[in-house]
Amino acid sequence: MSRLLLALFAAAFLAAAPASAQNVVGTPANPAPVPPRALELEMQQMLTGGRIAGRVTIPDERAANLIQPAGQSWRDFHNTTLTWVGGIAILGVLAVLALFYMTRGRIPIEGGPSGRTIERFNLLDRSVHWMTASTFVILALSGLNLTFGRFLILPLIGPEAFATLSLWGKIAHNFLAFPFTLGIVLMFLLWAKDNIPNGRDIAWFKAGGGLIGKGAHPPPAGRFNGGQKMVFWLTVLGGAAVAVSGYILVFPFAFTDIAGQQLAHMVHGLLSVLMIAAIMAHIYIGSIGMEGAFDAMGSGQVDLNWAKEHHALWVEQEMARGRVSAPPAGAAAAGD
Amino acid sequence: MARMMFLCDAERCIECNACVTACKNEHEVPWGINRRRVVTINDGKPGERSISMACMHCTDAPCAAVCPTSCFYTTADAVVLHDKDTCIGCGYCFYACPFGAPQYPRVGNFGGRGKMDKCTYCAGGPQQDNTAAEYAQYGSNRLAEGKLPLCAEMCSTKALLAGDGQIIAQIYRERVQQRGYGSGAWGWRTAYRLEVQS
Predict the structure, then answer these.
(1) Most exposed residue of A12, A187, A262, B100, measured as fewest CB within 10 angstroms of its CB?
(2) pTM beyond 0.80
(3) Which CA distances in Å does A165 have to A144, A171, B42?
(4) In a domain, B197, yes or no
(5) Domain count, chain B
């Protein structure tokens, strides 16, 4: 009897249930609550730059990313931004240098070579410079190959030869990063103290430096003038940033996730093409652009007249210490 | 020719990971690489869904667009494949891929990237079909044998569908109509710029 009553109560309760169904918790709802929508989530993550990620049972956390729309922006950066910025920066600097050479020609030593020399960079200075410089050139060429080789070299030599070239380029890029970084650190230790900017550099820049300024000598400079200090800090700071971002890419996932690697590549690529453009100007001035300049990093001995024109204060210091070579017999008297 | 696609019906996927295992076994995929994986979103919360994901063989494939050596190509079935002989393992396709498909054996300098490996839609690579050389580099070539990818073929709940895009989209639409709900075709907007009504 009591069972029948219980059943009746239950039936009455169930009949009343729909009215209060909204308040029931803990029972499985069917159909399930509104599921996540693929379309909306993909749109939303694309607009906010986020990722759709979850949990995976395979022991590889990297696999937990389901969709990362940031790859599309990285693609745009690599295929459009980097190609254009790099192309314009490098071709632009080349064009400016060619134009400058055609209008002004080689900047001569105004007083003519004196025949007397003064040591500007010792063997350690020059070794560090050329270690950094030679690795930089290979790093730059193998790096540019990844962005431009596909359009410039691949059609010329075919896919197999290009793959071999690029593979060796990648291996060289990865290994030479270490001597390059060492060079950056050593350059900082050797030359930072003489590269601290000061008021003279402003006057030097106002006068157009040793290259652009016409007629009168550029304002006197110490061991390094404003332009050289600019190249120094660009190399040291830019080189450090390129090295750090590069190591993040050489050791994937050692330091950061995919978003960090995309950012590291963007920093690495942009800074690299800008440094390549700037260093091309540096190479120009140090070779065909200016008479007497190459000796500084060649033999290390520069002509006294060149040194006086570009580094008057430094020459004074060095002469006071008696570090200038004796004039060769019959040589013209030094200018000034 | 068909336009091959993958579609994972998240309402049916039970996260059994059989597709992951079948793929690894079929192609003898190296240790540390999973061409396919199952991701569970909203794990333990209302609206939890599991989605099996691999290379989606995109229409305008980002991997191919950024590859420095142009090692990618699209087959007549719209399957995106790559040539491991011209791949240099730079990692660019991994940065660009929306689905995290490209992976690299750690055989390069300092344990860095070797040649990239990804889902081939069971269609091998540029080597001659069903040769030992093709198997060693890319795994088996079921498509050349007239079979669809193994992951989808052995899916116990038929959550994972592979085949011509129009046909599998139609199957999915019918399912959604019949049961009254669905979360949509995951990755389709990103990979194919297509929207499947659900």
Answers:
(1) A12
(2) yes
(3) 13, 10, 46
(4) no
(5) 1
